[in-house]
Amino acid sequence: MKGIDRKKHWENIYETKEPTGVSWFQTHLQKSLALIGSANLDANAQIIDVGGGASTLVNDLLGKGFKNITVFDVSSNALDKTKERLGDKADSVN
Questions:
Q1: Per-residue pLDDT reduced to its tens digit, 21-48
Q2: For the chain, first and last CA: distance in Å?
Q3: Rounded distance between C-alpha atoms, residue 56 and residue 37, angstroms
Q4: Which contiguous run of DSSP H or E holds residue 47?
Q5: Given this model, what pLDDT does residue 22 score?
């Protein structure tokens, strides 16, 4: 993405498209969930989803009882969509 403002690019993606309307959307991130599950982590383990965008991984992790989750993304639009989708549960995610 040489010559492109990456933050502006991703802000535009999440401003103009629904999370389900991008080619990389998955209802559940099965591979990620399987890898996290294979680590046999305690519910208080610190988990960070780097480049989480508007991913549903955080929903599934909360559903599995994890309590210390951070979602990081360059796009505040993506994070806003995640917060909106999580509703009251967003307060329990960094």
A1: 888 888 899 999 999 999 999 999 999 9
A2: 28
A3: 16
A4: strand 46-50
A5: 87
